[in-house]
Design brief:
- It is a single chain.
- The chain has 12 helices and 9 strands.
- The protein is of the alpha/beta class.
- A 9-stranded parallel sheet has the order 2-1-9-8-7-6-5-4-3.
- α9 links the parallel β8 and β9.
- α7 crosses α8.
- The protein is globular.
- It binds 3-hydroxy-3-methylglutaryl-coenzyme A and magnesium ion (MG).
- The site of 3-hydroxy-3-methylglutaryl-coenzyme A has 23 residues, from α4, α5 and β6.
- 3-hydroxy-3-methylglutaryl-coenzyme A binds next to α4, α5 and β6.
């Protein structure tokens, strides 16, 4: 039977910020991650060691990672696209990484300038070194419920890519609705199909809220048995390759829903809300979290 505990993977400092126009200085990012550490979160994606030409916001990855307060029992994974990124990450003491690919060929080409198979080939040497170094590796599959270029993405393609990432050694596979087009029945069917090939405890869901479906999709996936959910404080982000795509589902809203369902997260919602409101101020925009708006209304 599924447990009542849900692990939130907080991706705001990486997936959220990578798509925000306002460039934040490193000390604000460090303050953000330190605040997130004090909420009770156990997994906080800290930054990304990709090419700074592709993602200028995270060019300060090394500085940020070096200066965050690393609490015992909390993981601070970082995104790594290739061996160069792995070396940069290891040079500052990273112990958990995330590799990423997509279920759609066209999206992969735009995002990382490689086909799906080429991107997985690139991970093989990274995975080998990670294994030798005792570094944990998480894997992302993007565009699991739709692609801005090819439209529909066959579930069989999602299953194939997720299975491959699991086979090459990712301990957890995050299934990403990158452009937020999914609806609950589709999300459930996709998760169910992947879970036939990759055990449910090794799966996570990652929704963006473009069409306002993210919480409904998460609920459907919780009912199917998933117990790891990615989200971003204040609902930051977007997708540079999908016009009109909004941010990740807000962590505050996910935690509020989970606690309302009687599920445990270990997260202090008040501290999370204060962090989200503070971040929105730093980005000079209104928070995308409905819970933060409700709880901080004057
Ligand atoms: P490329 O241009 O094909 O790479 O980029 P290259 O190997 O030809 O190298 C070009 C230049 O980049 C070289 O520098 C390299 O040294 C440098 P130059 O000689 O021109 O001065 N370079 C690097 N520099 C620093 N760190 C590195 C690195 N690698 C190469 N690691 C590459 C290929 C993969 C590097 C590039 O396409 C890239 O960095 N892409 C990242 C894009 C990205 O971060 N997208 C967002 C993440 S995915 C996502 O958000 C989805 C997710 O959230 C889930 C979901 O929502 O569904 C995970
Ligand atoms: Mg994302």
């Amino acid at each position: 039977m599924s447990t009542n505990h849900v692990r939130i993977v907080e991706v705001g400092a990486r997936d959220g910020l990578q798509n925000e126009k306002t460039l934040l200085p490193a000390d604000v990012k460090i303050a953000l991650i330190d605040r997130l550490s004090s909420t009770g979160l156990k997994t906080i994606e800290a930054t990304s060691f990709v090419s700074p030409k592709w993602v200028p916001q995270l060019a300060d990855a090394a500085e940020v990672f070096q200066h965050i307060r690393k609490l015992p029992g909390v993981s601070y994974p970082v995104l790594v696209p290739n061996e160069q990124g792995y070396e940069r990450a290891r040079a500052v003491g990273v112990t958990e990484i995330a590799v990423f690919t997509a279920a759609s060929e066209a999206f992969n080409r735009k995002n990382i300038n490689a086909s799906i198979d080429e991107s997985i080939e690139r991970f093989i040497p990274v995975m080998k070194r990670a294994k030798e170094d005792g570094v944990k590796v998480r894997g992302y599959v993007s565009t699991v419920l739709g692609c801005p270029y090819q439209g529909e993405v066959p579930v069989s393609d999602v299953v194939r890519v997720a299975r491959r990432l699991h086979e090459v050694g990712c301990y957890e596979i995050s299934l990403g609705d990158t452009i937020g087009v999914g609806t609950p029945a589709k999300a459930r069917a996709m998760l169910k199909a992947v879970a036939q090939e990759v055990p449910m405890p090794a799966l996570a869901v990652h929704f963006h809220d473009t069409y306002g479906q993210a919480l409904a999709n998460i609920l459907a996936c919780l009912e199917e048995g998933v117990r790891v959910v990615d989200s971003a404080v204040s609902g930051t982000g977007g997708c540079p390759y999908a016009k009109g795509a909004t941010g990740n589902v807000a962590s505050e809203d996910v935690v509020y829903m989970l606690h309302g369902l009687g599920m445990e997260t270990g997260i202090d919602l008040d501290i999370l809300v204060a962090t989200g409101a503070w971040l929105a101020g730093q980005l000079h925009k209104e928070t995308a979290s409905r819970v933060t708006r409700a709880l901080t209304a004057a």
